[in-house]
Design a protein that fits this description.
alpha/beta, five-stranded parallel beta sheet, 50% helix
Length: 348
């Protein structure tokens, strides 16, 4: 039976067994009460269960399961004394992880003057992959409410940042900078979560980040019948055929050019149109005319046919051109994929 106070202990004799301390940690990203079986076993077998936080979200569920939990903050020495006689004390850790208690136990163990109980760190619940996204949603929600800049932003006002962050992500990829890549992926993800948070406030057609995630999950399942259905795909070309067919059925488009954003950079636009033509196996003659525009169009179509991204190729050539310019100036070589970025004072 669980006791309610670490003080209600018989004094430890010189031959008393040192007992056992279990530090039980839980994740706030998992619903309270969803604990591992070893955690429930430790709680059931414990002589005493303690928690310093009387408002800990796990406590109602532990008590409902018949586990008596005492609200107490023992010192390291008090906890060691509570284990005398071979007793087991489980400490339900607070969100901070009980650093003062663990530091005190480490000092006692290092002194060599105390018979230390067996110490065990037992994770009672684990974060699932993607669990930190919940933190991002919570942080974004608070920022939207409390930050003067963020609370006033709109989809239209943030649009330019989505474009900038996408370009910075591409630059990190082309530079091969893994640290920068991780940061830029986070910046792109922020744009998604920020726009979804703003969308929740729409008076007529609100939606949330869960709606956004649910929509893309459903789309991925529909467009991968070879993974989630009965169809087969042996090659990347088969996969692309499945994708384009299901996409055409969903969108019911009348032209292969439908859905191609005309606002994208010119070379990318030309390559995208050429890709649609090639994939649909259409016999279309590239228009000819006077001027550099038609020459660039022909180059972009040729690049796409050869499997080359003309935008990436031009950026690579432009970086080489930049390096030649800097060399002629006697300036130091530029690092990474680009020069220093300008600080934007109104960006969060």
């Amino acid at each position: 039976m669980n006791e309610t106070s670490p003080a209600a202990r018989p004094p430890a004799g010189p031959e008393a067994a040192p007992g056992r301390i279990v530090l039980l940690t839980t994740s706030h990203r998992v619903a309270p009460g969803l604990l591992s079986w070893p955690a429930w076993q430790a709680l059931r077998d414990a002589d005493t269960v303690l928690c310093a936080d009387g408002a800990h979200p796990q406590l109602p569920y532990l008590r409902e399961a018949g586990t008596a939990v005492a609200e107490a903050s023992p010192t390291a020495q008090e906890l060691v004394d509570a284990c005398a006689g071979g007793r087991t004390v489980v400490v339900v850790a607070t969100g901070e992880g009980e650093p003062a208690l663990t530091d005190g136990l480490a000092r006692l163990a290092g002194s060599g003057r105390v018979a230390m109980p067996e110490l065990e760190l037992l994770p009672a619940s684990y974060d699932l992959p993607g669990a930190r996204l919940l933190d991002l949603v919570q942080v974004m929600d608070r920022i939207r409410v409390e930050c003067p800049w963020s609370s006033g932003q709109t989809h239209e006002g943030l649009a330019k940042y989505a474009i900038e962050e996408a370009y910075e992500l591409v630059e990190a990829i082309e530079a091969g900078d893994r640290v920068e890549l991780r940061e830029e992926l986070g910046d792109v993800l922020l744009q998604v979560v920020f726009h979804a948070r703003i969308a929740e406030e729409h008076p007529d057609a609100p939606f949330s980040v869960d709606d956004v995630a649910g929509g893309i999950v459903a789309k991925l399942i529909r467009r991968h019948p070879h993974v989630f259905g009965d169809e087969r795909a042996e090659t990347p070309e088969d996969v692309k055929e499945h994708w384009l067919r299901t996409k055409a059925e969903e969108k019911r488009r009348t032209s292969v050019t439908d859905g191609v954003p005309l606002g994208q950079p010119g070379l990318a636009l030309a390559a995208k149109l050429a890709s649609r033509v090639r994939t649909a196996d259409l016999d279309v003659t590239v228009p000819e005319g006077d001027g550099i525009g038609y020459e660039l169009l022909a180059l972009a179509v040729r690049a796409e046919a050869d499997g080359v991204d003309p935008e990436a190729a031009l950026r690579a050539a432009a970086r080489a051109y930049r390096d030649v310019i800097r060399k002629s100036e006697g300036a130091p070589a530029a690092g990474g994929g680009g020069g220093e970025e300008d600080a934007d004072e109104d960006e969060e």
